[in-house]
Amino acid sequence: MRIGVTGSGGKLGRATVDRLRADGHEVIGFDLTGVAGAGFTRVDLADYGQTLDALLGVTARHGGLDALVHLAAVPVNGIIPDAATFQNNVTASFNALFAAHRAGIRTIVIASSITAMGFPFDEAPPFLPIDETYTSANNTYGLGKVVEEAMAAQLVRWSEDCAITALRFTNVVAPDEYATFARAGEPGYRRDLIGSWIDARDGATAVALALAHRVAGYRVYNVAAPTSGTADPSREVAARWFPGVPIADDLGEYESLMSTRRIQSELGFAAAHDWR
């Protein structure tokens, strides 16, 4: 397939481009920064005209796309003012999704986030591990992801046989960032992430699986390492952080408190990297 990847210059974007190319796909990266040349076009996704034009075709790059992976975003709150974070991300996502609709692209994967389901979890979740049925935004980045998911769930109906998959990524860890797990035994380590994490390469695997297992309609999956980023057993961690919250009877010893059971059972996801 010929696949467009927005946010191709980001941590997850770079890993995704590498993975999709290794799988034999032709990949066109779209971002504000990147290496000029074949396989990349600079696009301001806040500009709908640029976005639509880029997805329809770019001279010397492509003449149409089979699929779109939308990863581009201001990645966290604090980089720019809060309202600007929401406005930038929601606008870019609308532009990408609606331009894909106009361009006839019917296979789409978008990046959602753990921030759509409670991060930083100052309010205890209703159950553990948290699955895709729980949605609770507590900042403008998370609110934007909730809006983007709702928008995707509606837009998917506007085109026959359209498939949009939203992947709720947790904290993405690059191969050179594993030193942080030296703190895995600290009582509060990764509490705001309920102990979850995902290697960028495994995140790219989730994208590849979502594309390969496309099903018409809208789907959402959590994307985290199936095992936690904390040194203590998950049941002990859950009881310490969220006393009184119901815990699944079958929770694995080090199973992630951000449930990945759905993506494992439906897409066959398995992580190849573990900090342990």
Question: Keyphrases for this structure?
Answer:
single chain; about 280 residues; alpha/beta; Rossmann fold; seven-stranded parallel sheet; two-stranded parallel sheet; 7 helices; 9 strands; about 30% helix
Q: Can you walk me through this structure?
A:
This protein has 276 residues and is of the alpha/beta class. The protein has a single domain (2-267), classed as 3-Layer(aba) Sandwich (Rossmann fold), CATH 3.40.50.720. Helix content is 32%, strand content 16%. A 7-stranded parallel β-sheet has the order 3-2-1-4-5-6-9, with helices on both faces. Helix 3 links the parallel strand 4 (67-70) and strand 5 (107-113). Helix 1 crosses helix 5 (200-212) and helix 2 packs parallel to helix 3 (82-103). The model has no long low-confidence stretch (mean pLDDT 97).
How are the SSEs ordered, and which strands pair?
Blueprint: E1 2-6, H1 11-22, E2 26-31, E3 40-42, H2 48-56, E4 67-70, H3 82-103, E5 107-113, H4 140-155, E6 163-169, E7 172-173, E8 198-199, H5 200-212, E9 217-223, H6 234-241, H7 261-267
Helix pairs in contact: 1-5, 2-3, 3-4
Give a summary of the structure in a few sentences:
This protein has 276 residues and is of the alpha/beta class.
Q: Can you tell me the CATH superfamily?
A: NAD(P)-binding Rossmann-like Domain
**What profile does the largest beta sheet have?**
7 strands, parallel
Spatial ordering of strands, largest sheet:
3-2-1-4-5-6-9
N/C terminus separation = 35 Å
Q: Total helix count?
A: 7
- When the domains are counted, the total is 1
- Please provide the ordered H/E string of secondary-structure elements: EHEEHEHEHEEEHEHH
Radius of gyration: 18 Å
- Helix % is 25-40%
User: Which term fits the overall shape?
Assistant: globular
CATH class: Alpha Beta
Based on the coordinates given, report the CATH architecture. 3-Layer(aba) Sandwich
